[in-house]
Amino acid sequence: MTASSPFLTLDSNVIISAAKIHEPQSEKCYNFITKVIDEFVLVEPSIIYQEVCGTLSRKMNTKFASNAKDQLDLLIKPQHLVNCDRKTCVSAFTLCAEHKIYAIDALYLHVALNYGAILVSLDKEFIDGLNPRKLPIEAYTVDNFPY
Amino acid sequence: MATILIKNIPEDVLKELKRLKVEYGCKTWAELLEQLTIKREAPVVTEEDRRRMKKGLEGLRRLRLEAAGEWKGPPSVVEEIRRTRRHDRE
Known about the structure:
heterodimer; A: alpha/beta; Rossmann fold; four-stranded parallel beta sheet; two-stranded parallel sheet; B: mainly alpha
């Protein structure tokens, strides 16, 4: 059986929070991911690997981070992983000025825009700062995700 | 690579295509067509895909339990990621 699902771009902070059980939003983030993988398809910039695994490697250890890498491999289909190569970065940098966001935030936004995906982050400052007039996609924090 | 010639494009459609070409950062019309194809392609999710994602989720649950004994306290994850992304913060 197959079904069509809309795309969703998940900020790395949602996945990292889900992994850090002693985090106020951890349970919420884990439950959120549980819910969305039934209804959405993740499309992510490849830098999510560096952000998730780099953070977990520093906070936990390399083996733990490597294990997290394996889970990302399962959660994100290879064809829905956007390489952060020159072409992607050159296309994304103008978003920094349009939305007054930082470089890495722009990579997530760029991928969401290109795939018409819903963008979800734990960082309210990032989501609230996006310019709604230049945003043809939906963007939410985990707390206000309406679906 | 194939070549196509498109005739009779309405002015307003051409104007919109030119706007999209700039918005998506495409240098050529071929790149724009590629981008538009990606955007309109609805992802097909098979039962096997769902099984794979659920396996990943189960792995994430195990990681949570493993982290429970070691990773506590501040900074919060949001603050941690802000720090890594915003080292240029003024």
